[in-house]
Structures are given as C-alpha cells and as structure tokens.
Amino acid sequence: MSKSTVGENPTAAPEDQDLGAAGSQLSTAPKEELPNLPAMGFVGWVRWFWRQLTSMRVALLLLLLLALGAIPGSLIPQTGSDETKVADFRDRHEILAPIYDKLGLFHVYSSVWFSAIYILLFVSLIGCIVPRTWQFVGQLRGRPPGAPKRLTRLPAYTTWRTETEPEQIREAALALLKKNRFRALPHSLEDAGGAPIAGDAVAAEKGYLREVGNLLFHIALIVMLIAFAWGQLFKSEGNKLLVEGNGFSNTLISYDDFKSGNLFSTDDLTPFSFGLNDFTGTYEASGPNKGTPRTYQASLTYSEGAYGKDRKAIVKVNEPLEIGDSKVYLTAHGYAPVITVRDGKGKVVYSDAVPLLPLDSNVTSSGVVKVYDGYKNAKGVTEQLGVKAFFLPTYTAGNEISSSFPALINPVLNLEPYHGDLGVDSGIPQSVYQLDKTHMKGFKDSKGKQMRENLRPGETVKLPNGAGSITYEGTKEWANFQITQQPASGWALAGSLAAIFGLAASLFIQRRRVWVRAVKGADGVTVVEMAGLGRSESAKVPEELGDLAGILYEQAPGAPDPDDDSDDDLDPTTAIDSAVPAEGAEK
Amino acid sequence: MTLAAATNESLANLSNTLIYSAMAVYTLAFFAYIAEWLFGSRSKVGRTAAALTSAKKASGAPAVTVKKAGGTAVLERPKVVVRAATGTRDVPDGPGAHGGDEQGDLYGRIAVSLTVLAFVIAFGGVLTRALSVQRAPWGNMYEFNITFSTVAVGVYLTLLALKTNVRWLGLFLTTSVLLDLGLAVTVLYTASDQLVPALHSYWLYIHVSTAIICGAVFYVGAVSTLLYLFKDSYENKLANGGTPGRFANSVLDRLPASASLDKFSYRVNAAVFPLWTFTIIAGAIWAGDAWGRYWGWDPKETWSFITWVAYACYLHARATAGWKGRKAAYLALIAFGCWLFNYYGVNIFVSGKHSYADVGLGALQSVGF
Ligand code: HEM
Question: What are the transmembrane regions (chain B) (predicted)?
C-alpha cells in the first residue's frame, strides 16, 4: 500500500480533526475503532464481540461473504429448483457428491453456513440500526453545531466586507437559511462544551432526510428478509394436470405433486375448486418462426369456498388467477387423445382421455394407455393391457417421427399394444407415461412383428385373433396448473419499495452545514464570512454556498477593501490571494 | 398477413443494414479518437507531475482552487473558495486526450461528431428491429447487445451534453461498442422473431429496459474506476519521486485527476444503484406472475443478487475506514464483473429458467411449455 493512500484513510475524517464539533455527526455511521483486544472477563469479551459485529468493517466482510456464498448455488444443481439434475449430478460424480452433500451444496440457500452468514449480517444490521436511530433522534432534537473558530478551514468559504450592521446580517442570514429549508439557529444559543459562545454567527444544517433514507433502507432490508423467510416457511406449491372438462378442488389429495414450507399445515390451503373448460394455443403459422407459440390460454370455471358461486376466468402464462392467498398458474399444456378399448366380445373396458407428454416444441407426444382391469382376452382369461402411444398433432407425409406443427392440423396417433401384467402390484411406483414391459408381451401383426398402427380420429384398430379393438375417438387438450400460496409477499413488496425510496434519499440527498459569521472589524466595517461543509466533497456545497452568499450580498452590499483601492470585484486570482494570506496568517 | 410479414422482413433487413453502417461509423470514430490521442501526445504537458512536485516544494501551503466565478454580469458576487480536504492530493485534472494540441482537439471533435452520427444510425437500427417484431428490442442476446451498446453511447453523449468532463471515455467506449456489436452480428445473431408467451408482460419492458440502462451506466462507472486505478498509481509514483514510463506519462497525464475519476465513478455507480435495486424487484414481480414465485434462486436471479450485493459492498466500503480509495475501486470492478457474468456467463454457461435470453431455443422448456 502506498504512502499517500494511507494518508487518504485516516481513522477519523480529516474534517473531524480540524473542526471539532462542527464537522462531527454529519452521519450516524459507527465510529471505526481498531480491533483492540478487550479487557479480560466474559462481559468484556461479549462487549468486544458485539462491537466488532456491529462495526462497518464486519458488516462489509459479511456482505462480501454473502455474495461469495451465493455463487456455488448458481453453478451446482439445487434440489430446490431441479431434483432430476441433482440426481444426475450424483450419478456422474460419485466422489464429489457426498462431499457436496456434507457441505449442503445441493441446497446452498437453506444450508447452515449460508443461513449463518445472513443471520449474522442481519444481527449486525439490527445492532447497527438501533444505536444509529437513537443517535439520529438526538441530532434532530439537538441543534446544528456552532461555527468553528476558523471558517477558512472549511471546504467551501467566502467572505466580504460590508457597511451593514452585523446583527442585521445575522438576522437576514437566519431568515434566508430558514427560507431555504435549513434548520438554522443563531449561534448565541449554542453552548457547546458548556461555555456560552459569543453570538457572532448563525449555524444551519440541511439534508436530514439522507439519514432518514439510510435508516429506512436498512430497516426495509430487515422487513424484506422477514417477509421472505415467512413466505418460505408457510408456502405451498403443487401441480395438477387437467384434461378439458375435468375439475380440481384444492385439497392435498387432489394434487399430482405437492411441496410445502416447514411450517405449512394443510388447513392453510385456501378452499376453492375449478374446472378446465377449454385450452387454446395459437402459433405462428408461417415465416421463419413458424410454430412459435403466440398465446396460450385456459378458460376456467371456479368457485371459492365450499358453496361459492361459479365464476369464469381466463388464465394465461403471465396472468395467474388469484383466489384469496393462492395463485393458479398455467405452466404447461399438451394433447390427450380420447381412447376406447373393447375386449373380444365388444365390451368397453376403457374409455378416457389419455394425457400425453410433449417431447418437442411441435408437441410430438408420447404416453401409455393402461387398462388395469375388466379386460379378458380371447380365451376369457383376465389380463392387463398396455398401449404405447405416440402422437403427432400435425403429421406430414414422410415425417413419421415428429410433428411438424404444434397445433392440431392433421393428427395421427401411433399405437403399440401389449398384453400381460402391468406390474403395478409390485409396489414400485410407476410413471403413468412409461410402460414396464418385463411381464408384457406385444401383439404381433400378420408378419409376426410387433404390431404398430397409425390411427386418425374416429378410426379403430382390431387387435389380432379377436383380442378386441382400440378406437381413437378424438383429441382433447390438457393443461397443467401450478397452485401456489406464498404468504407475506405483500410485505416483501412493501419492504422493497421502501428500500428503493430510502436508498434514493440516502444516495441523492447531501447532508450539509452552513455557517454565517458577521463581526465588526476594528475599522468599523463588518466582515461577513460564510462557510459550507458537506459529508463528502461535492461540487454542490460550494455552489449552494455561492447562491446563498449571492442573495445575502444583495442585502449587505460589499464595501471597498481597505488594502485594495480598486474595487471589490475580485477576480479568481485575487480570491485565492486573499484566501491564502488568511490561512498563512494563522500559522 | 403475408403483406405484413413482408414489411416486417424488409424492416428487419433495414435494421441489419443500419447496424452494419453504425459499426462502420463507430470504426471511423474509433480512428478519430486514436488520432486525438496520438496528436495529443505531441504536447508534453506534465501537469500532474508539475502539480505534485510543486506541491512538494511548497509543502504545507493550502491548495485552493476557485470553483465558482462571479455570478451574473450585472451583480457581482463574493467568490467561493474551495479547499480540498486535508490528506488528499490536490492535482488538477488533465486536459483530455488532445493534451491541449489543436489538431488533436479537432480530431477529438470529429470523433464526437462521428459518435453522434453512429449513435443515430444505431438507434435507427434498434428502432427498425423493434418495429419489425412489434415489440421491445430485447427478446434475445443479439437484440440485447445492440440495444445495450446504443444505450451506453447514449449515456456517454448525455454526459457530454451535460458538460461533464467525459470526452476521455470516447476511445474506451467505441472500442467496447465495436466489440459488443461485432459479437452481436457474428455469434449472437438471431433472425427477427416474436416472443414466446412467457415473455408477454409489461414487466418485461420495465425490467429489461432498466437492466440495460443499469448495465450501460455501470459500464461507464467501471471504465472510469479502472482508469482511476491507473491514474492513482501514476500519481503515487510521481508523488514518491518515481518516474513513470513514457506511455504512462503521456496517456495518464491527460486523464482527469485520480480524485476526479474516483468521484465520477462513485457518482455514476451510486446514481444507478437504486435503479438496479428496482430492476431486481421488477424482475421478482414478473417472476411472481410468470413462474409462481417471486424469488427462486434461479442462476440469473442469483447473479443479479450477487451483483447487487457487490455494489452494496462497494458503497459500504466507501463509508468504511480503511476501505476507501483503491480497495473500494477493486470492489466496484468486481461488481461490474458480476454484472458482465450475469449477462454473458449465465446465458451461455449456466442453464436456468432465463435461458430464452439465449441464442438458442430452449424457450419452451424454460416455462414448462
Ligand atoms: C444487509 C446488508 C446491508 C446492505 C445490503 C447494506 C447496503 C447499504 C448501502 C447500499 C448503503 C449505501 C447508502 C449510502 O451510501 O448512503 C449503505 C450505507 C450504510 N450502511 Fe449499510 N447495508 C447493509 C448492512 C449494514 C450494516 C450491518 C451496517 C452496520 C454496521 C450498515 C451501516 C451502514 C451505514 C452507517 C451506512 C451509511 C454510510 C454513509 O453514511 O455513507 N449497513 N448500506
């Protein structure tokens, strides 16, 4: 570290050393002290620790740690956002994964160490805000500090001589400063250090809102954190896939999957129900972006509570339906061919819409029709059926393996039927979209190959040897809904708005002081001195001082300088000249 | 329908032509800035050195400069004397790239005029692109890049128009704008396209436009921070009686004083920090509407947060004893690095819900569609 950089960073602001009380308390930032070792004893240590924790230096280090700590979570898959990626990572990194597990790196943002960082930071924050608030209240109730003896030492300074009486000037200055929304007091009221000081100056201060803003910002951070934590603990989030015409009621068992915060209880679920009337998707029909989705919307009928009135609503991708504390989002869609399966005797053993999973952006889809019971084969033996389904909403000749457009233009359903035991009794949970073929046998076509048939809506395929038939009746659409409940989000929003306003006030408002001194010199001419001090060196402080001085000068016009017989229209060089001797004379 | 598609296509082509033309003009501006620096190097001013050595000789004498000359011509006013805080160096600002050389100054002016011209053309390019897709021009990285560089130049020109002493930024700015646009038209180019439904939200307009403005201003702050570090070392060396290299002497001497650069970068960073805060909150509101949660530690969200915390660190550091000056400047650079990574790094290397901002598709999966 170079010499001059050290020179720039004295432990106390240079103004403080120079100006005593006048320069102090322009902010409520904690005084920096070097980490001296405490006196022995438990209380001493606790106090030492507390003072360290609430110092600016430690707050800064904790903030840095927070930023660093957030990084791994963005690079390593997280259970909170993508479980399958985590599982995949575990498979691929057998050595790393257990280490990551120990360190909580698969759930960084709820890990012990990450929580420790932000909890310490917020303890530090509270420990910082409380004393600062008191200090600030004290500053508000006190008075702006009196004028320092040597105003020339202040960052912005101006002076002139005038015939006007000092009292008059001080009164005018007081009025002027008050008019400019300064908190201004005649200096005579000030008795800093106990001894009354001669009433020769006016002291004024402005920009208290900066401190208010800063405190508001830091308090708002606490509000945001609490609201966020509350939301995490009491949130719930679940998914439900609905085919057109079907309905859902908001109870735990109705969900396809459900996650909730640690303190969530099922009683917290808002009572409501809804049904999907219709899903509409529109797509770019031509041009280079043919097939790109344009709109998705689901029209619902919903009712609140157990006996609520039926109401209609449209849910779009960015426009969830809000019911009480809950929001219903549209998150995915696909096709559900309606399929009817008959046994050899023509009895309907299955008839339903089968939701298929989209595989690509043109909604090429696949899934399985599973007939669990009721089916008897040609010999009258009870069996189960599994039919792999592959679906193209827009089939074009020559392209058998993928759809060429996402909308239903020329739908073709490819079926691949099997019979035997679906294996649902084995106890292992099965995906509804996959077929476990271990105990299944394929139906063979006339050439002895696995039977595969393309169907268009309304068409039926006969299973060989009188085993029955499968009919593709038509196509419905399905939509997936995510239902979330996240309490306290209003508080989070309020906190963040407060944070922005507080921050803006804290950064854009200057807190500054102005002193005006007027004393009669030995020659009977009044010397007016004005000085300004800001918290940081800013061009605004001298500018403002210049404006104020300009107005005051009109009321107390300059008198000729005794040792300058030209006039008082000083040019910049003489301004410097006159300032320098003033400084030098004091030495 | 087909007619509309055709107009859109021709607008998109016009946009491409305009962007290429803007690049050509930026290149000319770039050379003009180079000429400014080259001609400026003819005049050996050495103001910094002079100020520092004379300050040494007359040690203890207070350094004063006059900030405000007399008021209006009609009524003269008392002059305000400004005094630097004790302990800080008091070095005058350098004269700028032209170094007081007349021809250099002329080239500098030409460079600024060319920059204005290029800005207007690039603005036209962005506008026609927006019209061709009938939405805001930031649906993918190509559009983001062209908008970003245009806004960055806009920030620079606005500062110039406000009579801020920033002409020295010109060369650095045009260099990176050319890089940014070069990247846009080669690697990131995406044919004009409309948005997937997930991106249909007015929060997108608010969130992304403020993000772009923040990035542009952070960029200006980062460049001046970097130059501050160089200039500060240079001043240190001079103050300690060292002799900096000829290049440093010639180039750094013409920059504003390190204190001015430091102050400028602080102002710039502090001024956009609330806007960046707002950007993140707007993003959270949008995420709340689109994905069912306002915060989910998605990589993009995480890096916005990291960037925010890093800038908060920087602002804090400036109020913390022992952290002002160079250390705070390093923090500001790190913070800008986070911003850059959030834009390029996360889009390219990390997959997340925001992947539609990417060059590729992935748009559908991103929202579950
Ligand atoms: C939760 C993490 C925190 C964040 C994100 C944060 C952020 C900020 C920001 C952005 C500023 C700049 C505003 C300005 O310069 O006026 C600031 C100022 C300040 N912060 Fe924090 N802060 C945090 C925690 C703390 C803590 C723990 C303390 C107490 C030790 C603290 C004390 C201060 C003080 C005294 C200022 C005003 C400095 C001045 O007057 O210039 N902050 N903070």
Answer: 18-39, 110-132, 144-162, 169-190, 202-230, 268-287, 302-321, 328-346
